[in-house]
Amino acid sequence: MEKLIFINKQADLDAVVPTLAAFPMLSVDTETEGLDPHKHKVLLLQVGTPELQVIVDTRVVNPAPLQSLLEGPSPKILQNAKFDYTMIRGSFGIKMENLIDTMLLGDGR
Fold first, then answer.
1. Contacts of 108 by beta carbon, 8 Å cutoff, 6+ apart
2. Distance CA 15, CA 39 (A)
3. What are the tens digits of pLDDT across the range 30-87?
4. Largest CA distance in the chain
5. CB hemisphere CA count around 19 (13 angstroms)
6. Which pTM was predicted?
7. How far apart are CA 43 and CA 91, in angstroms?
8. Which helix (H) or strand (E) holds 85?
9. 109 has a pLDDT exceeding 60
10. Residue 77: exposed, middle, or buried by beta-carbon count in 10 A (0-12, 13-18, 19+)?
11. What whole-number distance in Å separates Cα of residue 39 and Cα of residue 56?
């Protein structure tokens, strides 16, 4: 059964990062206030595993504890990775690598 955690306190994010770090692959998504990474910010940052989804309210919580996970070599799965990566880098300076974009995978036909 999947667990969902909404993070609006810094200590809660600090506490969940070791759990996320134990997984070999993470999913990542954003909700933003607009589409321009130079003008708009990420409002919610979601990082997840098959068992755990963490939604961070970045208006009140600094996502810095996630930086080593997002910049690390483990694969990150995103939908429209170019957009989410650009927004995450613009808002937080996090430079992710090893991204898998589900929008580009196709259906195998």
1. none
2. 31
3. 999 999 888 999 999 999 999 999 999 999 999 999 999 999 999 999 999 999 999 9
4. 46
5. 15
6. 0.91
7. 9
8. helix 81-92
9. no
10. middle
11. 20
Side chain identity at residue 14, one-letter code: D
**For residue 75, which amino acid is it?**
P
CA gap 91, 109 in Å, rounded: 37
Chain segment 73-94, per-residue pLDDT in tens: 999 999 999 999 999 999 999 9
Do residues 102 and 77 touch, judged by C-beta distance below 8 A? yes
Give Rg (Cα) of the chain: 13
Of 63, 52, 61, 44, nearest in space to 22 by CA: 52
Task: Give dist(CA 34, CA 83) in Å, integer.
Answer: 11
What DSSP character marks residue 33?
S
